[in-house]
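Private note to self, pasted from the team thread so I don't lose it. Backbone tokens:
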């Protein structure tokens, strides 16, 4: 009898909590309606209620994390391209941090990189528009425009007192994700720069490796600095080139379908030759999966600065009004079980960049110079 009483007491408590939670939700909805009504009656200017509701929806999504966002039908249509290796704009990957638009990284050989935009810059104005209060996707829309037209970006930079202004001409951004060369005094080290993980990166990367393997290279420097990431499948494929076996990355979400583990297939394309991976604050997402997996398997030395810390997976969900929402559905975890989110990958050897010269002139690249010295020590 005592057990039955306890069961019914527990059931009553659970039902009471559910009712309380539901009532609390309805109270919040009523409060929201009251706020809208007062805005309509009392606010100093006329307000477009449809736009205000879009902002409210976006506010809900952005309160979850910096990567979830609402897209209006117009914006959703414009966002239908991104990982095909060609898109219009300035050539920067951006994210949100505490309501401010932050540069994750400029893409090599693009207008933004050539103008001097750096990873970690905060964009405060786009043209004459203040960025504060705008969503990430609204900021992207402002930066895009007809090819050949220019836009002024005003940025705040760490350790620089005054805001910096850059005039940048928009162009079609064609991302050739892989470039390579031979480095070192004895010309026996392979240097491969991976600029992004788009749909053809693994084929380009493997082609470079096969070319170098014919030349009997002593080791490899793999450069992922200012690589904002891209496709998860590409990160897995390229990481697999260098591992004999073992886990590469796992994803964990609320749904069973979003909780998965990915493993390397047998076969190291460079037969165990030493690797140094270069990363910086602009290395994000797929770059962090690659660097983190090689670090956890002790397959490479990671050199440079801590990476960005973008370790989550977003899904684009179409909505009935023709718009869409970007929603975080799972997070990445390295083979060690550590999350990348907001933490990033810590280098084995910390070497801070001296300026941004490596994008233009590798002769002034202190991090690459340090990496080359490691092979000779």
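Design output:
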């Amino acid at each position: 009898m005592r057990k039955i009483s306890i069961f019914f007491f527990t059931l009553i408590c659970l039902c009471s909590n559910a009712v309380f939670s539901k009532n609390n939700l309805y109270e919040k909805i009523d409060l929201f309606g009251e706020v809208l009504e007062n805005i309509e009656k009392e606010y100093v200017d006329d307000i477009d209620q449809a736009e205000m509701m879009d902002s409210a929806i976006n506010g809900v999504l952005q309160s979850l994390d910096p990567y979830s966002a609402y897209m209006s039908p117009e914006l959703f249509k414009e966002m239908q391209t991104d990982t095909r290796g060609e898109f219009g704009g300035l050539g920067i990957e951006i994210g949100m941090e505490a309501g401010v638009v932050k540069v994750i990284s400029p893409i090599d050989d693009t207008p933004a990189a050539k103008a001097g935009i750096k990873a970690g810059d905060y964009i405060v104005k786009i043209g004459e528009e203040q960025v504060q209060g705008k969503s990430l996707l609204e900021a992207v829309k402002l930066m895009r425009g007809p090819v050949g037209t220019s836009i002024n970006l005003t940025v705040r930079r760490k350790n620089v007192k005054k805001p910096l202004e850059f005039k940048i001409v928009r162009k079609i951004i064609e991302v050739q994700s892989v470039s390579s060369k031979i480095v070192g005094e004895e010309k026996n080290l392979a240097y491969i720069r991976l600029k992004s993980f788009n749909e053809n990166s693994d084929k380009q990367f493997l082609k470079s490796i096969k070319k170098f393997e014919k030349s009997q290279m002593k080791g490899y420097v793999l450069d992922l600095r200012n690589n904002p990431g891209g496709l998860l499948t590409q990160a897995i494929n390229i990481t697999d080139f260098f591992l004999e076996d073992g886990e590469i990355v796992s994803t964990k979400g609320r749904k069973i379908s979003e909780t998965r583990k990915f493993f390397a297939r047998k076969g190291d394309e460079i037969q165990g030759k030493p690797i140094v991976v270069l990363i910086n604050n602009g290395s994000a997402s797929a770059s962090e999966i690659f660097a983190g997996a090689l670090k956890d398997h002790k397959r490479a030395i990671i050199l440079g600065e801590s990476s960005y810390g973008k370790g989550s997976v977003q899904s684009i969900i179409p909505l009935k009004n023709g718009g869409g929402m970007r929603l975080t559905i799972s997070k990445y975890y390295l083979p060690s079980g550590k999350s990348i989110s907001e933490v990033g990958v810590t280098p084995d050897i910390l070497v801070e960049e001296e300026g941004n010269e490596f994008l233009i002139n590798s002769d002034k690249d202190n991090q690459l110079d340090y990496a080359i010295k490691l092979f000779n020590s």
